[in-house]
Amino acid sequence: MKYLKSQMKQLIKDNKDLQIRLKDLMDEHDLEKSSAIRALYHSEVAAGGKYQSAYQALDLPKG
């Protein structure tokens, strides 16, 4: 599975919990948005994370 910033942005846009988590990461660790999005990917999506299937679903063709 590959990190795609555009897919992460869409996933965050579609999920209120991830929006809150992103803001918390930015505040707690003084991160810029792009760095916080990547950190969120690694903590919540990659390697069987809670949102992995939702992230992968964004890659499927729209039917």
What does this entry look like structurally?
With 63 residues, this protein is mainly α. The chain is built from 4 helices and no strands. It is elongated. The mean pLDDT is 94.
Keywords:
4 helices, 63 residues, single chain, mainly alpha
Question: Helices and strands in order, then pairings?
Answer:
Layout lengths: L4 H9 L2 H14 L3 H12 L7 H6 L6
Helix pairs in contact: 2-3
Q: Report the uncertain regions.
A: none
Report the strand count: 0
Spatial gap, N to C terminus: 22 Å
DSSP summary: helix tally: 4
N-to-C series of helices and strands: HHHH
Describe the global form.
elongated
Average pLDDT, rounded to a whole number, is 94
Main sheet overview:
none
Estimated helix fraction: 55-70%
Query: Which structural class do the helices and strands define?
Result: mainly alpha
Rg from Cα: 11 Å
Question: Strand share of the residues?
Answer: under 5%
Short summary of the structure?
The chain has 63 residues and is mostly helical.
